[in-house]
Amino acid sequence: MPAIETLGSSTVLCVDKTGTLTLNKMILSSIYSGNEYFEIDKNECLLEKFYELLEFGYLASQQDPFDPLEKEIKKNTKKFLIDHENIHSKRKLIREYPLSKNLLAISNVWESSDKNKYVIATKGAPETIFELCHLNWTEKEKMLVQVQKMANKGLRLLGVAKAGFQDDSLPEKQHDFEFEFIGLLGFIDPVRPSVTQSVNECYTAGIRVIMITGDYPGTAQCIARQIGLEDPEKYIIGPELSKMSENKLAERIKSTNIFARVVPEQKLIIVNALKLTGEIVAMTGDGVNDAPALKSAHIGIAMGE
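The structure corresponding to this sequence follows.
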């Protein structure tokens, strides 16, 4: 009963974008490589110049994936690349460099068929891939413009890069490879059909809705407009949030309904800031890393399937 009463008196609902507002059903929509942009969903054939981007995205994924993004990469690799069955079979997986809080990228090291050289495939957050590839300021600015264009279409983005390595002893850090940038993969994650009505019902009940996501602001704003979220032009990004004083955040959070490029631990900061302003906070979450924020909220709503 206390949980039901708290839910009924909530003034703010904090929700994830992916899997809560959207279906978490990734569809590879468009790609960018070699200064060219290509929309896959409007074409049955993929131009040969984009094969390498798809191949290395696949090599940087699990061979038997469970992640929706990796499943979609595998599906399109099978669809467009004739020799897809040999992409993994011609090589032996030697080492995996996992995603970490400090480096949002995954790298797989493969031994080439001639056993004279390692091939490294990596994918991750575009700005992390730019950093790994040591792009200069001009190149990075150019790529960030393209990232913004794709994000504004509501796409979730992954950067892909490759490297070669010939020494017997592999380095401890991904930064020690000399990566070459290949391109960007853009995925559509459709909005759940019932979400627009649900958001409207929250507003009718006097509950403010706040979207929290790790995606780019442009992606979040596109989804926000689709679902009728109030004030979609205002947002705070994770790096900005980390530098804010408690008082400044408490002031900004009164009129900001989108938090983008947020890492999991910052969800707790957002919930606590709302509580300080006198809000009764409900928080949804579907991952282990959501647990601190769910516990801190007045009511935590753990999401399943």
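The CA atoms of residues 270 and 292 lie 11 Å apart.
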